[in-house]
């Protein structure tokens, strides 16, 4: 590819000013940035609720808040983090920003649909904010019959999630078609950056699974508003049916959360190792394998719900096969480091942290996949620890890696590395202190969603709360670093990390038109060490 | 168990769950050390030492045999773990002859216990040591989770269904039962006790009609015992800071404002009705969530509770 031809000469995408230039924009980069702002708000809000939970858990008896308030806090923490932060942040935020740039395209294939998805998302989060008049107390899982009986605004919140889901489906469709149709000349499937493979697998899950949860929430609303008894046994319904519907979406959706983060890690590791990615095809196809197997394992959330032992056994068996493509990815990332020339800038620190914490999350999965130990550990803090290691230790660390890596491309500014490393250290320590203790207290039998607990669990809870304070300080230092970077960061060159993917071959911040001329792709983007970057 | 690694399992069966846990922990520990060791070793060993140069790293893009092995080995490992998890689970959930049967009903927010001979109790299950126990679980309002951490088992209690949970009590003692499926405001206080008695003591207790009345015991004393045991105090404080429902002290003889604008006098009949049909006259400002005690307390027990409440002036 001729670099001079690819480097756009147009204006940076941030140059146009005024709210209209954002609200009506069809530019995928601006839409991506708006998603990032929106999801950041909910990340901070969800984090605030988490801090209130940890505060209350300092003492075995409910001390600062009523039980009801505690129940509301954990519901909002879960619902906001899942539906408003972790599902949209990487796919809709970074995905929107990067997919056309990675493909060598000027925009996604349906820019207006893209803007529509964003505003449907905004409508969804406004409805969810509106539901706070009678805040939800059902847990983020909305289990019936409790969710059909409680006085909280369940129908409102589920309508909000329904809208968010609709936005997800439209975005997913847009990305699938874009990846099929808008690859630059010469960019074969096996020359695509691995982030695109992750996004492709994620988009398929969003399009296939999200309608199911949408319909489920409609049924729940019908149950509450019209008194139809889909899930009410006294009317011939079945409360466990809701769990099947819910997890048919909500299990695959954890791969919506993790696959794009795995894509980010696959981008960052080779750049900072100055070495080609190891096992490109294995990493790419394992994303598809995870997406596929992920549809067949939802029953492992329900081993204690009275399903037949045979159904439990089949779900357990299939669940274990998610571990194989996941392990393949981890081995390939580690092998990429072998004989590299590794530097530890903040994106790399977070990418390595992803691998480190995700291994812990991954290796604690078999305890929950195996039926004997699942029946012991289900609905205890062990599960809470496991999914925070995969979702926060995994996805969120991948997201942080991505934010630090692409910050220069998005803003045209560089971040302060010293402050970034300080934040990283605090986050790494705080995270492990907070969540590793939860494995221990879970094995000792403490159930989740408890406003008060037996005094014998107090030591672990106090340690965990201390960890969460360190983690919070780390996040605030990171946020301060982003603010300072935006305000007075040094001007970023086009390619500060000497990367080979297409987005780095244009100016920072990226030009409005992305590429002055559509680039010609002659090779894969991982030729580090052999090709000059 | 007598094992070096004794986690306080209450039975040999629970020890088998611990054995599966240890198997997974052992395999997981091995892979943890292997992967984290390589991750850290490579990161340290291959850190950049000099200035950045081109063509300094080898052009390694993959290795088919390695990929084959790190697909094959994890596959074997996970099938092994699946197998042991499934075997132990199948044994623990298999029906057994000659079991003590106990019906347990979850309600917001207590466990109602019924024995086949008609005895009832709340938040306290007594079983004899040495015989298998079959818990037959259901719920009346929302889904609850019946969790016995010392026995390493749990099962959901679901409205409209009967689910089954087996344990094999071997040691006498008292074991905590938690609710593990979130069920609303009182979820975290919905605890109960499983009391495993020696067979002779159990037989004597069962002959005595479930030991709810002690010889010559005055009604208020018996009532206080019932209140302490029946989960009342999960939702009601005697006095001081209020919980979910109104405080118990001062109810007797008071003029009580009701939902809907009426008032009631807290006499014996009001207290009885509130125990047997709690939704009939709900105190103003409190949620109508209390379950009925009509099915779980006998009339003389209700009378005893009323007499106790009368002493809380």
Distance between the termini of chain A: 12 Å
Mean pLDDT of chain A: 94
Question: Percent range for helical residues of chain B?
Answer: 25-40%
Order of helix and strand elements from N to C terminus of chain A? HHHHHHHHHHHHHHHHHHH
**Oligomer description:** heterodimer
What structural category characterises the helix and strand content of chain B?
A: alpha+beta
Q: Mean pLDDT across all residues of chain B, rounded?
A: 89
Low-confidence stretches of chain B: none
Question: What's the β-strand tally of chain A?
Answer: 0
Number of helical stretches of at least 4 residues of chain A: 19
- Estimated helix fraction of chain A: 55-70%
Q: Structural class, judged by helices and strands of chain A?
A: mainly alpha
Strand content of chain A: under 5%
DSSP, total strands of chain B: 12
Tell me the strand order in the biggest sheet of chain B: 3-2-1-5-8
End-to-end Cα distance of chain B: 52 Å
Entry summary:
The complex is a heterodimer of chains A (533) and B (313). Chain A is mainly alpha-helical.
Give a topology summary.
The complex is a heterodimer of chains A (533) and B (313).
Chain A: H1 3-6, H2 19-23, H3 28-56, H4 67-103, H5 111-130, H6 146-149, H7 154-181, H8 194-226, H9 239-250, H10 252-273, H11 280-293, H12 309-320, H13 323-337, H14 346-363, H15 365-369, H16 371-377, H17 381-411, H18 417-443, H19 458-488
Helix pairs in contact in A: 3-4, 3-5, 3-19, 4-7, 4-8, 4-10, 4-17, 5-7, 7-8, 8-9, 8-10, 8-11, 10-11, 10-13, 10-14, 10-17, 11-13, 14-17, 14-18, 17-18, 18-19
Chain B: H1 12-45, H2 64-92, E1 100-107, E2 110-114, E3 120-122, E4 124-128, E5 133-139, E6 144-148, E7 153-157, E8 163-167, E9 173-179, E10 192-197, H3 199-207, H4 219-229, H5 232-235, E11 255-257, E12 263-265, H6 268-276, H7 299-311
Parallel strand pairs in B: 1-5, 4-10
Antiparallel strand pairs in B: 1-2, 2-3, 5-8, 6-7, 6-9, 9-10, 11-12
Helix pairs in contact in B: 1-2, 4-7, 6-7
